[in-house]
Amino acid sequence: MNINVGLFGGSGKMGKAIEQILPDMKGKNKLTPFLYIGKGTSNLFSISAEKITNVEPDILKEVDVWIDFTSPEGLAELLKATEKLKTSVVSGSTGLSKKDFSKLKKMSKNRKIFWASNMSPGLWAFRQAMKSLSHISHFDFAIEEIHHTEKKDNPSGTAKTLHGDLEKIVNKKVQLQQGIRIGGVFGVHKLSAASWSEVITMQHQALNRTVFAEGALLAGNWLVSQKNSLYSMDDIFLKK
């Protein structure tokens, strides 16, 4: 099966990472670079446009799945522009509010939407390992995160996801501190659990953006075969 991919925010850092690995991605279906939305033009994608509103409906109709790494505003624009077509969307945009998530859930009744604050398979495994902390819920806990200086949301979406997971696992409130923004760090997330007698440290570090790009394309390949709903990394790995 051939899947026409639309890339929204192609000129951003993650957009460039997607573009770089897309030709070599393998999976159940063949991913074809079809429509690029971003500044400039793409030599890889068949069609390029700076704004999605400049694209003819007949062309938008040809997209099977959109990959989005922009912002809450960008994701909202993409969803609005493709609402009538009900095109599948994979988004890694962070900084979304509770209202934004409510809209995603409502829209997913009529289309397939996949959202994750972090597309890394390793980070997902990290989250699964966290579940063992339920046995030491009386410990003190802390989450620390480091990202590059251009990272806009702070705390990061990943840190918020880990924080939410942790509070459910240990069944108590845990303070979430502001992250550190330094240099070109792709993402370091550290969880510490401590009592008066011992300390446990768990850490995940992304070495490049490729891991997030691979995860997004994996999700896109998987999503097109699913029913209308709002999906996450859990659905890919736990419901095979």
In words, what does this structure look like?
The chain has 240 residues and is an alpha/beta fold. The chain has a seven-stranded parallel sheet with strand order 3-2-1-4-5-6-11, sandwiched between helices. Strands 8-7-9-10 form a four-stranded mixed sheet, covered by helices on one side. It has eight helices and eleven strands. The radius of gyration is 19 Å and the shape is elongated. It has helices spanning 13-21, 57-60, 72-81, 98-107, 121-129, 157-170, 210-223, 233-238, and strands at 2-8, 30-37, 47-49, 65-68, 88-91, 112-115, 140-147, 180-181, 188-194, 199-205, 229-231. It starts with a strand and ends with a helix. It is 32% helix and 24% strand.
Key structural traits:
240 residues; alpha/beta; Rossmann fold; Dihydrodipicolinate Reductase, domain 2; 7-stranded parallel sheet; 4-stranded mixed sheet; 11 strands; elongated
